[in-house]
């Protein structure tokens, strides 16, 4: 297990103990995976993965996020 995976396990465990997460919320692990896959910030990856998992379009002027959304099959609003 990598250092990043161990850190994510620790953070998810801490969050689970204090926050009642929605069933629809994406996990930190999902956001991290998407960030690495598309070379995005964790913040942008969370938006992209939420849009993808909820079958929603994405409104952004950010070029990297727009390109990642196109590759991920997420429609863009311009």
Report on this structure.
This protein has 4 helices and 2 strands. By secondary structure, it is mainly alpha-helical. The protein has one domain: 5'-nuclease (Rossmann fold, 3-Layer(aba) Sandwich), CATH 3.40.50.1010. Strands 1-2 form a two-stranded parallel ribbon. Helix 2 packs across helix 3 and helix 3 packs parallel to helix 4. The protein starts with a helix and ends with a strand.
Q: Output the CATH class name.
A: Alpha Beta
Which strand order spans the largest sheet, edge to edge or round the barrel?
1-2
CATH A-level architecture = 3-Layer(aba) Sandwich
Whole-Å distance between the termini?
Answer: 41 Å
**CATH level-3 fold name:** Rossmann fold
Helix content: 55-70%
Please state the overall shape, judged from the principal axes of the Cα atoms. elongated
Structural class: mainly alpha
Mean pLDDT: 85
Helix-strand pattern: HHHEHE
Give me the number of helical elements.
4
Number of structural domains: 1
Q: Unreliable segments (pLDDT under 50, ≥5 consecutive)?
A: none
Number of DSSP E strands: 2
Give the biggest beta sheet: 2 strands, parallel
The CATH superfamily is known as 5'-nuclease
List the helices and strands and how they pair.
Elements: H1 3-18, H2 28-38, H3 42-53, E1 58-59, H4 63-72, E2 76-77
Parallel strand pairs: 1-2
Helix pairs in contact: 2-3, 3-4
Give structural attributes:
78 residues; Rossmann fold; elongated
Summarize the model shown:
Helices cover 63% and strands 5% of the residues.
